[in-house]
Design goal:
single chain; 93 residues; mainly alpha; Malonyl-Coenzyme A Acyl Carrier Protein, domain 2; 4 helices; 2 strands
């Protein structure tokens, strides 16, 4: 069984989405998520400083986007017939 654990606010660090940009479709996904969230998640996940991404209005959509990126990557590589999910705080969504 595969279990996906999604973190809550406070787990973000400067640049933590940089490596995700190597994943197919990640940049496009972040662009769409940015439009819907009304903030530049690509910039905040790659170049913004710790103080900027600590702000709840940035941190929460950023963490949700990171969790969805992980889910997308996992579902592209594995069968999700037997999967569990867990989350803390905003990660519960």
């Amino acid at each position: 069984m595969i279990v996906v654990a999604c973190p809550g606010q406070g787990s973000q660090t400067p640049g933590f989405l940089s490596e995700w940009l190597e994943d197919n479709g990640a940049r496009d996904f972040l662009g769409l998520a940015s439009e819907r969230a009304g903030i530049d998640l690509l910039a905040h996940g790659t170049t913004s400083d710790a103080d900027t991404i600590r702000d709840t209005k940035v941190a929460q959509p950023l963490i949700v986007a990171a969790s969805l990126l992980a889910w997308r990557a996992l579902s592209a590589r594995a069968s999700l017939d037997a999967v569990g999910v867990a989350g803390h705080s905003v990660g519960e969504f």
